[in-house]
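A common beginner's mistake is to predict each chain separately and then try to dock the pieces by hand. The better habit, illustrated here, is to supply every component at once so that their relative placement is modeled jointly.
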Amino acid sequence: MRASCILLCFLMFLAVSSAYPGKKKQYKPCKELVLYFHDIIYNGRNAANATSAIVAAPEGANLTILAGQFHFGNIVVFDDPITLDNNLHSPPVGRAQGMYIYDTKNTFTSWLGFSFSLNSTEHHGTISFIGADPIMVKTRDISVVGGTGDFFMHRGVATIATDAFEGEVYFRLKVDIKFYDCW
Amino acid sequence: MRASCILLCFLMFLAVSSAYPGKKKQYKPCKELVLYFHDIIYNGRNAANATSAIVAAPEGANLTILAGQFHFGNIVVFDDPITLDNNLHSPPVGRAQGMYIYDTKNTFTSWLGFSFSLNSTEHHGTISFIGADPIMVKTRDISVVGGTGDFFMHRGVATIATDAFEGEVYFRLKVDIKFYDCW
Amino acid sequence: MRASCILLCFLMFLAVSSAYPGKKKQYKPCKELVLYFHDIIYNGRNAANATSAIVAAPEGANLTILAGQFHFGNIVVFDDPITLDNNLHSPPVGRAQGMYIYDTKNTFTSWLGFSFSLNSTEHHGTISFIGADPIMVKTRDISVVGGTGDFFMHRGVATIATDAFEGEVYFRLKVDIKFYDCW
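With all components supplied together, the output reads:
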């Protein structure tokens, strides 16, 4: 019996020892949300329904048309509706607000800094995102760096996919948010 | 005695098992700071004491007056004094540096990306913030996404309140920073 | 023997009790990377090899020359090569993409928001950074707020040093990235 207790102690010790590294290796999300957001860039003719605007551009470019050289240097500010499905006209569950920066001269990539403000029967709170977005890649991961409300102190990884686009005016992004630190 | 040892083992196991989820439910801050910062927007006539400037605007707007449509598309860069109380003329304990973006067309909301650089007898280090700021709401939460120095690796939530404003030139923000991950 | 088991239990309990605070006090990085990136600001004459561009400026300034008053209000968007050593012409292991904002009127400081996209035999993934950068200080710390791929969920602190500069056109930054939360 003494031996069994020592064995138990030893097994517990193993369990405990692995508990912390175990957290480190836990790649199963503690929460997951799949949402869509819809970006309609102002192009000089769609003021009524545009949800974003070019607000900065490099020398020689203007604020109505995205700049040449893969839009390098454009900063776009947006306030886009978030929906549960891929329909722009579905009732929004919140707004995606922030900016993206076209930051490469020889392909389309952007740098994203934005937050989701969710306000629905299911979710109330904010989720903040930061990351490099190689737009031409089918799915790309950015970092979920913080949250408030229902997403208090959450962290994770969001996988973004361009679900649809029309010219350079409408973009629909599918965002698969996986939280790995949920509090 | 053997039984008691096994009981002890079992209790320990329970304690250990709950330790990690326990961290997850710990909503009591490990550190808290209440600070004020003071933003004086350049309006074309106050160059000497302005602490921020409009640096980007949508098509048709200019950089002296905040844009129409709830300033949608304006990016403001700031370097504001931080004080311990609500007096602009109190000795600053650091600087709030970064930017805010007016990002909604039908109300006042902004997206914030900034850092506090604290340098006083009490605190030395930086705290970085990201988040959506629905300005018209009395208090709103943003994420504290990182820190250095005294705030090494800290994370938390900051509650912002507009403590005072004068026209569209002076804003005083009260920031209640609650750290939940203190290292 | 019973006593020794109890002693063992007690020691284990101590070990476990200190394990969690132990994490909190663990200042030894779990991973470290030292990388260089190279920023060549567009100045109106170097379009071919410039890696960054001024895209926003305060009233009265332009987008070709950095603004007066310590460049206060300039936003620079960049897409800079990352190298393993301090040679601009070494094979790049990735790109540093994002923006910096000159945010002080009486000295050179900037606010950084950017990501490293690493894509080499050794590293594949992104690392995102946020922070205040008092440029004139020899080394300054910013926050590593998230990562993807090989740097999944990582957090840490990055120490930046200006390794070299030529006028206001070329800057080489050395970045010592210390991760303290590695997953």
